[in-house]
Amino acid sequence: MIRRTSFLVALTAVPIFASAKTIYSGxxxxxxxxxxxxxxxxxxxxxxxxMCETGEHASNEDLAQCSHLKFEQVRHELSRNxxxxxSEIERNDKSLKAEGEPLALPYFVxxxxxxxxxxDSECYTETYxxxxxxxxxxxxxxxxxxxxxxxxxxxxELLKN
Length: 161
Description:
It contains 6 helices and no strands. The protein is mainly α.
């Protein structure tokens, strides 16, 4: 009996470290995520659309990939708009260069790079503030989508002018 008690006392003196890490623990790099299309491989577009719209029979991972898919679509739209803006700026820069004026394209490229850094940092900040949560990636992709949609509107305004 004394031996068993000594063993139990010894166990309570040893700190117990339980690793409670989950897929939602720690830092992550969104660039390492597989495309949402790969995640949904084998499902029809209508099935994916229905699941993403209703959330019916969807796991948290499914919903995160739905949010990821929305981000990829908006990112593609931004890419098309950026290419159009770049072409317009390059055309305009030709006349600026001929007049000896500063060129706009280097500033446009820098502003886009700075904007991407802002967007990523903002979404990581908001996501990490929520801590370890099952909705972490859903929240992250929704943030990325929202800020990217705003950028699409800004670039479209630039193109109008």
